[in-house]
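Hi F.,

I've been meaning to write this up properly since the lab meeting, where we talked about keeping a consistent format for the predictions we share between groups. The idea is simple: the sequence comes first, exactly as it goes in, then the structure tokens exactly as they come out, then a line or two of notes. No screenshots and no reformatting. I'm using this chain as the first example so we have something concrete to point to.
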Amino acid sequence: MSTIVSPSLLAADFANLQRDVELVNESAAEWVHIDVMDGMFVPNISFGVPVCEAINRHAKVFQDVHLMIEEPGKYVEAFRKAGADLITVHYEACRHLHRDIQLIHSTGAKAGVALNPHTPVAVLEEVIEDLDLVLLMSVNPGFGGQKLIPGIYNKVQRLKELIEKKNSKALIEVDGGVNADSAPKLVEAGVDVLVAGSYVFGSEDPKATIQQLNEL
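Output, unedited:
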């Protein structure tokens, strides 16, 4: 089974976003990763609903929308209407996590929960069976191009154990510092979905880079 690659548009050329979305369409990537930041939950601001709508007009792959925002439940329906196939909210941003998961599912989207580097996987024990995906941040969220935090490999293994223990169907996604060195180790640890931004869009041949990740 090939690894799902979700190129992160945070590292794309914003002045040529349509071109880079079409590049993803033409590659081996099955997903595209869209990071939404509000400047409050993380110290950066990125895409909002209008940009997601614009991406949706051109994207032919599964749209993997990661909400790095405060009170994400308020915006779930808007992002679903904008084209999100999977909506991932942060555990750290949700006062009523189970309610937000239910809300995402009620829109027809798949539901994911993201964990920051300091957050243990054990916090998902009561909701893991309801999730389609868990996103483990392997860098502190907010900026691309960071180095992977080495503890992620053991964290992936602990999450895999929890998923198997609870008989969950959740996929494991990792975002941050994915490159030629870390990607094989992440897949070996149990990762299903690799988010890659700078490594893909900063390479000489992004399509070839995506293909290499897909074949892991």
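Notes:
The chain has one domain: 4-214.
Residues 4-214 form a domain with the TIM Barrel fold (CATH 3.20.20.70).

If this format works for you, I'll send the rest the same way.

G.
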